[in-house]
Amino acid sequence: MKSRRIICIVNDIWENSDEVWGFNTFRENGYCVEIWRVGALTIGTKIWEKPQFSYPVITIESKKELDSKILKMSLYKPIYLFYFSESKYFDKEKALIKLLGGKYCNVSIGPLGSRDNHLQLREVMSRKRHWMDNFLATYNFLAAEIHKCGLHSKFEAEYENNIMIHTYDYDYYLRNQNSKSKCGKEYILFYDQNFLEHKDIINYGIKRRITNEKVYIKEISNLLLKIEMEYGLPVVIAAHPTSKNANLKKIYGSREIIYGKTCEYTKNAKWVVTCASGAINYAVLYKKPILFWTCYQIKNSDIYFEWQCIRCNILKAKILDISDNLKGNIQNYLTNPDNYEKFMNYITSNPNEKRLFFDIVVGYLNKM
Question: Cα–Cα distance between 121 and 345 in angstroms, integer?
Fold first, then answer.
């Protein structure tokens, strides 16, 4: 019996996408996986990641090219998986798949987004019907209820095949339940977000958040020194995956820097420090106090401060402005883990779930 083909339609791929986005799980369950990168069509991607794994990867540069490939693939009857928090990017292509007798699913596995998702969800629920209701996905695999904000109508939002699961951060949490930090001592964890050189600055066409590096580095240095002096604990830096070591040393000096172990190190941290990293999901899961900081340059950049405020409002958190003087007591800015229950709804639909996201997905794909 020939393996059934899965076409994973993504903006781009990263070093660990094969694990995070289920490609390995699909292959282990007998599926043939092919990846189509469409970031040039959705977010204007200009810098592509180099594939780090053996799956076929095709970069698609136009809607015409995408439609042509869907037509050619119709003979093989693949399952299409669209990896987006909003399902509306490729409505016509999804309708074409259904008209050709094919099947597709939407996959939304990411954390809470940067826009007012609640407002979007209200708009969806106020729209009784949409033409795409005639071409619904076989399944919508959603990380949380709020991800229905990317659907088209109240009819689709109440669709019986909306499968509520959890975010990929919850997958990491499940994998790291029995892990232990190698730090060997108490520490405070700082979530680096690579504000100086993140490729999204180019890919998304947003203005650079940090325009004066010297001022930014001085403000971060003062914050970390204050934390270490007040608490008598070292600050460990959880590096962003896109950060280069040279820049990290320039910002954080001789402090310990860890890569790819943010979940593990959050579990064993005293508390964490962040501007608005998606990694706060780990802090919420492990009920760690969070210190949110901002600065003049962040507050005056694109939508990022809005993104931070959304998270802080849900967590009832104060934000420490490190561009002002740092004479206040940091303890007054730490979040209270008792306020995390509401935020948990953005991380998982079932706190008792022990299965990984794509283990659940495969069970449904096997029925198609």
Answer: 15
